Each structure stands twice: as structure tokens, then as C-alpha cells.
Amino acid sequence: MSDCLSDISDFLASPDKQFVFLDQSGRRWPLLKRLAAVALTGGVLAIAVFLGSLLVPPSLSSPLAAMKKEIRALQRRQERPPPVADPLWQRYAKNRQNRPVRPGPAAGTEPLRSGKILLGHFEPSDPESWLSLQAHAGRLTHIASGGLSLEDVEGTLRVTRDEKAENFFAENHLKHLVVLTNLGAGGWVPEAVEYLAFGPQAHRDRFLTDLVAALETIGAQGVLIDWQNVDSAYQADVTALFAQMAATLHAAGRELWLSVPVGDDLNAYDLPALAPSVDRFVAVLHDENGQTDAPGPIASKDWFEGWLQALVGGMDPSQWVVELGAYGYDWNASRSEAEEIPFSDVMTRADSSGAGDVSVGAPDFEPSFSYTEGGLEHTIWFLDAVTFANQVRAARAYGIAGLAVDRLGEEDPGIWEVLANTSPGLERIPAHEGITHYGAGEIVSIINQDPADGTRTVQKQEDGTRTERYGIFPKYPTLRHHGGTDPQKVALTFDDGPDPKWTPKILEILRAHGAKATFFVVGANAEKYPALLRRIVAEGHELGSHTFTHANLAEISAHQIALELNATQRVIEAATGRSTRLFRPPYEANAHPDDTAQLRALQIVQDMGYLVVFEEIDPQDWNHPTAAEILQRVQEQRKNGSILLLHDAGGDRSQTVAALPKIMDELRARGDRVVSVADLLGITAGDVMPPVAAARTHPAILAICGMGFAIVRILQDWMGIFILAATGLVALRTVLILLLAILQARRKTDPAGFFPSLSILIPAYKEEKVIAATIRSLQASSYPAPFEIVIIDDGSPDGTAGEVERLAATDPRVRLLSQPNSGKAAALERGVGAAAHEILVFLDADTRFDPETLSRLVAPLSDERVGAVAGHPRVGNKRTLIARCQDIEYVVAFNLERRALSFWNAVTVVPGAVSAFRRQAIREAGGFRHDTLAEDTDLTLAIHEAGWRIECAPNAYARTEAPETVATLVKQRFRWALGTLQCVWKHRRQAFSRRNPALGWFSLPGVWLFQFLLVAVAPLIDLLFLQAALAGRWTEVLPYFSVFLLSDLLLAVVACRMEGEKVSSALWMLPMRFVYRPILSFVVWKALAAALRGAWVGWGKLERTGSVVNVSIS
Amino acid sequence: MKTHTFLAALLLTACARPPARPSPSPVLSPALVPSQGALLGAYMDFGEREDDVSLEKIRAFETLAGKAPALIASSSYWGEQTFPLAALKQIAHHGAIPLVFWSPWDRPYDQDRGPDRFGLDKILAGKWDRYIDAWADAAKRFKHPFFVSLCNEMNGSWFPWSGYFYGQDQPANGDVRKFAGPETCKAAWRYIVNRVRARGATNIRWVFHLNNYSYPEAEWNAMDQYYPGPEFVDWLGISVYGKQFASDPWVEPADLLDYPYATIGAIDPGKPVMITEFGVGEFPKSGDKARWIQDIFSRIKTHCPRVKAAIFWHERWQNADGTFSNLRLNSSVPARQAFQAAVQDPFWIGNPTQ
């Protein structure tokens, strides 16, 4: 600040005791300085502690270490059921009397002819299935997708549609076969089919009507019947049923396909008798050992070829499609049935366990391996591209109609190579971007490795059958699951709290049932209600982190993730003295995410020492279901997993609270045990919520952290309201200014013919370079009446006086008054006293008038009530960016804003650079005073007080010299800002006065709000906008930001139009926003500091360059 | 005798809404005999070992039946060496009374195989004392009163604990008036019940449960030959099945029920009678399952006043020849309708909590 003040002291002769804000005692500033120093040191220390606690990640020991779950391969060869001497397929072929069994053809290499069927089984709920479908839609001809089930003996036809999938099929010209099963809620319902077959005709008729209607609604090509467990006793009835189905469907233009099961179920179908009815038979040649059987091959070579021969060999092969499996089964003792897994999961499990000798060869020609995980033995059999190639080769020999793949998304990608190529290599195993899984449960550890291809060696035997041996298994990003081994254990989790209304209610219910739960708290809520956190822990529950702001991890940076988690951790630590190792991501809590971006985020979380806790039971209680619906969803989903997600905050949770006791009863009725997350994992509560190290629990540090969070929260709350209010006010002001300016422009009629004699007064200090040009511009004026030009030299040490005297010698209208240096106000006062005429025109020594300026400027004074008129200064030196910005600023301020204010007689400043006054008004206002830095504003407000009107003359142009560098601009604006501050303070009584309501309620508050408050906080708001934008929350801040920017732009455009400037000049407003705002903000802060400091501040002086170019505006 | 949940529930229901429900409000005696009507019971297709009890299956059955049974049957096979605590807890918590078929046989639980390591002689020799004691202790800890049908259908030839496999008509211990087969069965019954009672499991009601007709039909194999004595038995029970296999003839309920009811009742006039299992397969070409169901429910009510409980056998299984026996109540639409209509009679007491 001192540099700014240094050149002022020589202008101001002596300190004036009346100067506004002057601290006469001189004690105010040192005291303030000392107080500020103490506060600053304390504040910086507190902020350092607070930020340190947020930014320095705590060294958390991951509970994963305590879990010690080992996965390793078992070396022994797979046990499998012994081969049967008299296999079913042989018996089946023998028993079939209707047709002689043709001998099997020699295995051929005939490629699948184009035009042959390729049917893919598709599962719309599986993203991998979608990826596969999209990648291979061009090769597929038919799609089988679920959708219909006969779910009870009454023949109720349940229709499940997926329109996205249906549209995809249609767009890609895939023929859609809707699968019709006999699956009910609790399993297969063979009675539904049997009664359809043997029941009354009306029952069949109704079913067929429903079926045709469903197929037509879906727009399907036909139906693929997949019925299981049907009693062979009804074989004849089933045959008749198919005849009727075929007739009805064909009449409706739909096809009838039949999935032909092998084994006992086959006996329900008399295939030769069905042949005339069924369009295609699909031989389901997988599931030799199904999910409920003991471990064994899914489609061994002998079994596959035996059934192929038994089914297709005896019939017309062109009616047959052969369905090949493309998946794996993982059997383990903890599950009642094997887990069906995609090929990629098979690879991950083989890789993780270190399985050796995974190969295809005699006798089964199907790969398998065993491993143990957490002491539990697993056996996997799976089908891959090599088994697929062998089976395709065997099937092709029969001249079948085509192939089917069960199912898309689970296959070894190599099968597509087999389908495309007669001699595929298959040795490279391409990895994909998907996520693989192993283990059981919803608590996951992340192995976020890049996908990497695997290899296998493939050889052909003499008969053409391929053998293989896996070398390197492909690698994928992987989730390892924990905590799901005991089907009778279930954990309750509550997200988004704590909440003072709902959390206590939930705690009461839990206490009444003696149950322990886990609360995943949002840090911001936790910070508000530390007592609730303490209560949760005291009552034996666990706390987990749910981020500080409920942030979507996939959308924020790694640093922000760390900040979110650290902040939440600190809040929990501060409140409870314990830290947590449990984390649940907001938004995506399903244990089978399909987004690898999310996986990367979770890897960061895991690296920080957290365990990621997902869930598989989600009744979506946030979406306002009733308590009964919540309970029903829990009942339906209980089998899916062992972690239940509910919410204890974020809206009206009354239904959750109402459902909770019912859920507890339900779980108890099932024989479940409600346990904590730690219990699910088999670790202790201390492992997931260890006590905080003593250094971090020091009460002072906890208090600082607590306060820090409170301040941040309060700031955030108020900042939101402030930004909203500011945006509203800016918009309102813009509209009002535009409206008033337009009204004023319409009203204004030039009262021509008012040409009083004038005294033109020019105060000058060190104006040697420019004064002559200024005087000459006046001499060139077209003003028709007499006028005098009075220059008051304020004791300039340079040649200013000489310049004036030189001109006065040739023109009697020019007069020089000289005085010892005593300030601008004194100079003006002297000029007023010496003026010969009643109407006074003021201009600065560096300002040049256009020839018409004088006429236009004094015209409004023809009205006797008008005491002063503001002219329109323009920037004469538009050479630098800074100057150009000021030009547009001046246009907006003088042409538009002042015009608008004058409509309501609420102009706050008549600029010293170009103005006209009635001497009487100046006298009544008390003349020019020197207790402020802005004597023009001071005088303007005083004239208002004296009851005069103040007008503006927007077309009375004066070219003035604007600062061209940032330094000079800062100096000028600092003087204006402090001067204005002094004036509005000095005339504070006029604010909100009823004498001149427009001035008191609009102009003066506007000065405080728009010239000081908003300008001061603008950089802060800009930073907030920038931070929000960088965090990807563009859409949230864009409306506010646009309002600010558009308001500026709109005003500029309108101002330029009124001014006759090119509208494109308005675009200068944009750089102005970003260059100017920080400067103005700095200046405002400086002025506020100066006001506080109460020091002497003088009139900053421009370095004159003499660069104003006289341009006449036509 | 302690009050139990069922009794409490019945009383509560009766107190809570007497005017709205005109149905009788039966009260259970300590032996779990209702003061009027009969308890409706069911076995609900609980899987191969008849012990895979789940709330889902119970609820699914109740939906099919249109009424929640008061009594739910499941099995405890000795080969598992466990007490079915989880299953029984679910049933009791659901508000029903459990009935357990406690059957001394070993995996793979196939009929017609004869005695295995759980032979009655081995039990009598004390080989399984520890298991019996542990089972009794668990039963005692379970606390809720429940029925146990021990060694059911001893007068048949298919289960390994039948008299058929223990000397049939041979003199027992040299006494020509006694037959070795039934005597061994009786001895085993008494031995087991004594051991269980000695452990303090007084919450068990013992059901003496025979087939409605003896196979083979012979003097030594007559029902009364197997009766261990009133002090060892709380209820008398019979299985009453209609046609189950394609090779069986269709037989109407009157022929299956009347004579056996009279015979079992005559063994001990002081005991209530339970139709411990009943059901019929779906054979649309042989007979009308719906009418059979309707008949047997009404015949029990009208002709068998001592029957205080009946357990419908809801199961579908596959036979060796690949065909199925479908005893489920929903094997056809008319069968289900008949069942739903029959159990609506307030005579059949359901689960008051559901």
C-alpha cells in the first residue's frame, strides 16, 4: 500500500483533520495489526492441523490381513462318476422302435454353410451377455431369450419383457425365439405342463390364446419350449398338445421349437411323433452333470457323441439344431447346487489357485481342476473353445440345420474363431475388459490387474479331435468375495445416516431384538451428530464410511477420494475414539459391478486400508416403497446374499422403520442369525473398528477437527444461499437497468436552443503535456453562446502554467488562476468562486470535448429543477487490453447504467471529467469538500440532499485518458474505491431514506452490494465455480455462472447498440470479466483495509502520456 | 405342564377377535389333542431326506393350500447324526407344531434294503446311546412341544426297522406265543423312549405310527403285535395312501380308512388317533384325485371321531422306471380346488398365527 501512497503526499499539502476514516489517535491500526497477527497465527495453525488430518492418510492396517483366506490348487485328479456300462443314450436309441437307427457318419470337416442357423442364448440382465451379443450379432441368426413361464398348475403364463433387447434383435434382423419354461417361484412346476396335456380342452385353448398373444406382443419369431421334469406317463398327451400348439402357432405365423432334454426327461417326448409338429428340435447337449448333481463333466466326448447319434442319427438331421454348452460349473460343499460361471471366472479361479495340468484329453475331453478356498474344496468342470471345436466337428458331420450356444457372455471367446474358421488356432486366449469373480459373499477385495491374454497348446489327434493343455491363464480385473460361506448368517447395514429422527428409532428396534448392525455414515451427517455416532458404537454396532459428501467415486479424482475418506474417518475418530476399516461406495453397492472405472476407485479405497462392503439384498427403501413391499423384497432377495441394505437417513424413513421389526422376525423365522459384518468375515469387532492411536485423539486436535468441519459446513450452507441470492440480485438488477435505460432513452427529447453563457473550469496539476490539447478541443467547440475557460493550476512544479498563459495570450476566453498546491477540491472551489457565469462546466485537464459536447451537456439544465448533468467520458487511448476493457466498461457505466439511474433521479456520481452544474446547486450543497478522495461523488450526493435533480447526457462525449497498465489502473481504482467508500459512508443517512427513494433504496444499496460486496467475494465464487467444474459438476454451476456472464454481456450489447458502437465490441466484456475482476477485487480489499487503517490517502495521479487522440463522433 | 406357544396363540386369537370369527376356538390338551375338530397337518416336499425345511417352501405350500397347517411334518434320519434344530425352530417360529419322523437308517435312504448300521439290535446293544442322548438333549433345549413318529410303518416290509427284518414270526426268546419281529421292534421303541425321557426331553409326544394295512398280512405282523404299551405312546397313527404307482389299483378312501381306523383304535381306546400320512397320486386315467381328496377329508370328519390330526403328504417323486408319483395337492387344477375346499371346513384347525 505504501507505494501507492508515496506520490500522494506531495500533492496534499497538509493533513486534513476532517478526512473521512481518518484515525486521529493513530492507535487503531497498530491495535488492529496486533490482533490480526495473533488471530492469523492461531488460524494458520488450526488450519494446518485440520488440513493435515485430512490430507495425511492414516496408516490403516487392512483387516484383510486378519482374514487369512487361502486359495490353492488341489493336485489330485478329478473324481467323477464311473462310466456306465449301458449308457442311457444307447438304451434310448435301442428302445426307439419307430425308425431304424442309421449308423453315425464319419466325423467330417464340412464347414457350416452360410444360411445355417446359429442360435445364441441371451440373458439381458448380464452386461457380458450384451457385450457378446453386440460383438457377434452379425454372425448369429437366432436369439433365444427368456420371457415366458408356465408357473402354476392353473396355467398362468408369466411374461417378462425386455424391450431394449427386443429392439436390438429387430434392428439386427435376429429372429427372436422366446423361451417358454415351466419354472415357478419355487422351482420347476411339471404339473403345469402335465395338466395342460391331460386336462380339459378349454384349459389348453386358453393357454394357447395367451401364448399367441404374448408372442405377438413381443414380436417374436416363435417359441422355444424348455420344459423339465415332465412325467413320461403323459407322453401321448404331450404329443397331442404339441400338435395343437403347432396348428395354432403356425396359423398365427409363429414357429414352434423344442429344446430336447437328454436323460430321463427325454421320455416325455416321442420325437418321431413330434416331428410333424415341431419346426426345429434343439438337442441340448450339455449338463451331463447338472448343478444339483455331483461334480462331473458337463459334456464329455462319449456322452456328447452318444446322444448326438441317438437323437439326430435316427431322424432327419435338417430338423435339428445342436446346442453346445459354453460355461463352467463350480461345485463346493457349502452350496446346494453348483455355481454356473463364465469362462473368464474359470480362468481367474485357475490362475489364482495356481492350478496346474488343466487339459483336454481322453477319456472325457473336458478340462477340470480342483482348489481349496478358505478350507472349502471346489471342483470346476468347464467347456471352452477346444471342447467347442471338437463338438462342432462331431455335429457338423450329421448335416444338421445349425448350432446353438448356451450362453452368450459366458463363452470362451475362442468359440467365435471356431465358428468363423475351419482350422482355428485357439492357442491364444484373449482377455477382455470385464470383471471376474471368485469366492462367496459381498465383502470384496480388489485385484485390479490389467487384462492380459493367456496361452494354451492345442494339438490335433489323428482322428481330428483336438487336445489341449493350458499354459498361462488370461488375467482380468477381479473381485474376490468374502463373508458368504454361512447361508444362515445375515448382516444388516444402514447407509447415509446418522439422522436425528430415524437413526434413534432404528437403534431402538435393534436393541429390542438384540441385533447388531453396521452403519455406513456420510461424513457430513456424522459431523453434525457426533452423539449419534457415539451411541451407535456404545450399543455395540459397527460404523463404516460412506464418503463425506455421498460422492460418486467413479466421478472424482484419486485425491478427492482420499479427502472424502480421510474427512469421514476423522469425524468418526473425533466422535468415538475409534477408526473404521469398512467402506461402502455410494450409488453402486451391488456386489457384481460391471464398471472397471469403479474398480479403479475401489482399488484406491482398498489401498488406504479399507474393506469394501457391498450388498446383494437391496429392497430399495429409498424409493418410497411401503413397509410391506420392503419386507416382500427382502424375502425375495434373501437367497441372493447375506448383506441387507437399508437407509437411516435421506428422507422419510418411516416405512423402513416400520419394516425393520418385520424383517427381523422374518430372518429369525428363517432360522437366520443377524450378525455384524466382522462376524460374517470371521474377524473381531476390534479388527474393523480399532481404537485410534493416542496422538491423533488428543482432545485439542479432535476439537480443532470438529470445529474445522463445522466451519466448512456452515460456510457451505451459507455459500449456497449467498450464491443463489447474488445470482438473483444480479439478474434482477440487469433487467431493471435495461428497462429503465430504455424508458429513459424514449423519454429524452433534446431541448434544443438552450445556450446560456458558460464558465468552463479545469483544475490542473502537472498537466504540461496535455493541457494545451484540452483547451484547443474547447476552442473548437461549436457552442453558439459565449463561454470562458478557467484553468486553476494547483501549484504545478512543471510548465503547466506556462502552457496556459501561451494560449491565453491568443484567446481572451482563456484564463489562468494559480494557487499554491492545496488539493483538487480547493482548486475547484476556487474556480467556482472565480467563474463569471451561473452555469459551470467541469472537465479534467486530460480530457477533450467533441465540438457538440458543450451543447449537449448543458441542454438538460434548461429545466430549472436540474442542478447537475453528467456527461459521458470515453476512453481516448484504446491501445492496450486494459484500456479497451475500460472503454466498454465506461460505455456500460455511463451510457446504460447512468441513463437508467437518471430515469429515477438516482445518479450517484457526476464525473469530474465531464459535467455541468448550476452554481446555485453547488453552493446549496456546500461546495467542493476535501474530506474524501471522490469530491465528485461527494458533491453529487450533497446536491441530491439539497433537493436538486441530476440528469445525464449520454451523448455529451469527453475523451479521457484511461490507465494503460495494471499498476496505474490499480492506483486509479483504489482512489475511486476508497473515495466512493468514504462518500457512501459520509452520506449513509441517504441510504434507505424516503426523500429520494430511488437513490436510497436502489442506487446507494447497489453501490454497497455490487461495487463492494460482490466484487470483493467474486474471486472466491470464481474459485468455487472452478472447483465444481473440475470435479465434473459442470451442470450444477453452469446456470449461476451463465447468469453472471450473460448479464454482463447483455448489458454490454444493449449499451453498444445505444452508443452506436459495433455490437461485437461487447465481447470485450468477456476478457474484462476474467482480467478485471481479480484486479477490482484486489482494489476493493485494499480500500477496505485502508478505511480500516484510517490512514491518509490522497489522489493517486496518472502518469500523463499525452496519448489521447481526438476523435469526433458523428 | 408348561403352556406352549400354540396354546397361547389359540387363546390369543380367540380373545382378540371372537365376534369376527365364528370358527370354534379349540383348546389343546397337554398331549396336544384339540378339544374339538382336528389339526390339519402337512408334509411339504422337503427334499430327498425330507428335512430340507424352509420358510419359502412352507409359504409356497400355504399359498397352494389356501390354509396354513397347524402341524408340519419333516424327518430326522439317523444317518445324518444330527437333531434338526434349524428346521424345527422355523416351524415353531412360524406358529406350527413340528412332527418329526425319527428314522434309524443310513444313507442312501433307499427302501427295501434291510437293516444297516442302525439296526434295532445294534440300538438295543447300546451302540447308539450317545446319539440318542445327544438328540434328546437337543430336543429338550428346543423346548417347544413336538410330535415324534419313531420307526414308522413297522408293520410293512420296506423300511429296515420293520419286524419283517427281525425274525418275523420266529419265537421270541424261546416263547412261542411271541413273535421275534414285532418283539424286537417293541423293545427298541421302549429302549429309545426311555433313554430320551431319561434326558428330560418331556416336550415330545410319541406317535405310534403303523401302515393302514400290514405287509405281509399275517398274524405275527398284526398291528397290535407292535404296540409297546400305553406308557410309551401318546398318540396312535396310521398311514393311509391311495394309488401311488402306475401298477397300483385305484382304491377309494372308505376302503383305506374304515377298517384300519377301527383296528388301530382298538389297540388302545385311551389314545387319540392321527392320520400320520395320507395322500394319493395323480392318475387321470385310473381315478378322480379331486374326489378322493374330498372324500377322505369328509370321511375322517364323519366316520373317525377319534382322529384329532391328519397330515397330508404333499410330494412328487420319480420312480425307478422314470415315471413320477405326484402326490402334490396341485397335481391338477381339480385336485387343488378340492383340497382348498376341504380344508376350508373349520373342523380342520389351521395355524392360528398365519
Biggest sheet: strand arrangement of chain B: 1-2-3-4-7-8-9-10
Shape of chain A: elongated
Major sheet size, sense and barrel closure of chain B: 8 strands, parallel, barrel
Number of DSSP E strands of chain B: 13
Multimeric status of the protein: heterodimer
Number of DSSP strand runs of chain A: 38
- Strand content of chain B is 15-25%
What is the overall shape of chain B? globular
Alpha carbon gap, first and last residue of chain B: 25 Å
Low-confidence segments of chain A? 1-17, 100-114, 1095-1114
The biggest sheet of chain A, with number of strands, parallel, antiparallel or mixed sense and barrel status, is: 8 strands, parallel, barrel
**Structural class computed from helices and strand pairing of chain B:** alpha/beta
Strand order of the largest sheet of chain A: 2-3-5-8-9-10-11-17
Note the total helix count of chain B: 9
Radius of gyration of chain A: 44 Å
Going by helix content, strand content and strand pairing, the class of chain A is alpha/beta
Q: Which whole number gives the mean pLDDT of chain A?
A: 85
Helical fraction of chain A equals: 40-55%
